[in-house]
Design brief:
The structure is a homodimer of 238-residue chains. The first copy, chain A, has 238 residues and is an alpha+beta fold. Chain A contains seven helices and twelve strands. The first copy, chain A, has two domains: 127 residues, Jelly Rolls (Sandwich), CATH 2.60.120; 81 residues, Arc Repressor Mutant, subunit A (Orthogonal Bundle), CATH 1.10.10. In chain A, strands 1-8-3-6 form a four-stranded antiparallel sheet. A four-stranded antiparallel sheet of chain A has the order 2-7-4-5. In chain A, strands 9-10-12-11 form a four-stranded antiparallel sheet. The first copy, chain A, binds a DNA duplex (30 and 30 nucleotides) through helix 6.
Chain lengths: 238, 238
Amino acid sequence: MPEILDPQSPRLPRPALPGLDGVSPQIRQAILASGQSARLEGGQVLFRQDDPARRCYLVRRGRLKLVKLHEQGKEAVFRYIGPGEITAAVAVFKEKAYPLTAVAIGDTEVAGWDRGTIMALLRQHPDLALHLLQVVVERLDEVQTRYLELSAEQVQQRLARALLRIMKHSGRRTAEGILIDFPLSRQELADYTGTTLFTVSRTLSAWEKNGWVASGRERITITDPHALVKFSETGETD
Amino acid sequence: MPEILDPQSPRLPRPALPGLDGVSPQIRQAILASGQSARLEGGQVLFRQDDPARRCYLVRRGRLKLVKLHEQGKEAVFRYIGPGEITAAVAVFKEKAYPLTAVAIGDTEVAGWDRGTIMALLRQHPDLALHLLQVVVERLDEVQTRYLELSAEQVQQRLARALLRIMKHSGRRTAEGILIDFPLSRQELADYTGTTLFTVSRTLSAWEKNGWVASGRERITITDPHALVKFSETGETD
DNA sequence: CGACGCATTGACAGGGCTCAATTTAAGTGG
DNA sequence: CCACTTAAATTGAGCCCTGTCAATGCGTCG
């Protein structure tokens, strides 16, 4: 799996919150040290939905895709998470299964803690529990927002929102515009927006003509974010 | 607003979790006593999305509808909550707005706590914080599940799931079958499933012919839950 | 260079939305 | 208790967005 990005180009500034922010640096170090790390290669599954949730993870390098699979082969992508972000907070509770499946995108390294360790950490550091609650609330909010969009907006508008959301989270400024940080196929975008790869392809082609985006194989650059924002808010082509 | 239900008929047994379960009865009493109560009549708004989140609430009597409104008039219904259930956990954090709007269905009574009080309670009772985290995780799970269904399934299947979900939460056994506890119009069901009142009406008419449901004005009884479950899982009419 | 996987484009059809016209039922006032 | 009002529900007709399927093009890698 190739690195598609120029490491020189700067990441976009993004609002801090994920991971272990909210505790002091030395405590963070101690926590990180207590985790067990694991390496994954592209496509490998870290945890699977409906399996009993035993461990909670933090991404150290690379990227995870969090999806939910449906019986008849479809899947919904919920998030792409990168270094510093945590997932599988459910592991805090016994008797619950993972709600999502986590798949590595390219080579990825994670740190993991089992339930006992997490509980101990949460009891030792009350700030951590509050921070975790905040992270979960944040995600609930995002899913609810996307649910509303899915039920109220047409495909193209949702696709615009998806690109902007992924761009904010994983964008990297380049000469052309803002490049999405990792390989992202039409099919993946379709799974993210609840449509088909064909509709995504057609739409990107049209936007390429408008000069809003520039795209290639598993590679997308937003060249006119402003136009895309306007469209994502109104759904109108004017 | 009339009471549509016979108070004699038993509520379905439901898995406990919501509200203040998870703390001892006497503490629960103390907490309840510290809340400020308010009365609402049908249609009245308790809190509005995007308003700053100041208070967190527990339903004592009646019912709240939690929805998210979209610019162009559409709305998505996320939950109907009844006595004992809490909402607006976001109020725990400063600098965040309510993600949803809460509207009373019929006369309703709630208890509310402001941010300061909640924070104090959470610090006094660590169990409460963990329980709150559990409630939020539970809801995140449900929304993600519904998101997947919305993106992968057709209207009728989603409608079957919606009826069953609401039935489990707010069903009451009667001679005919299981009656939904509160006035529920075609439009509301449409907002719950992400469709239109027309499609809901047509579908319910068809199911009424099958003997799966019996329905009237803002009133729905599931007469053959088993058939509906089967359909909700396969989407097939066999 | 050949092969495999991703992307593009066209043709087609159907699920479900839109809109309009009625019908039904509940609530209200005399 | 009945006529009147109002809101919910039903039903039909038409069409459009978008999913489905098939054929082809293209970029990457072994």
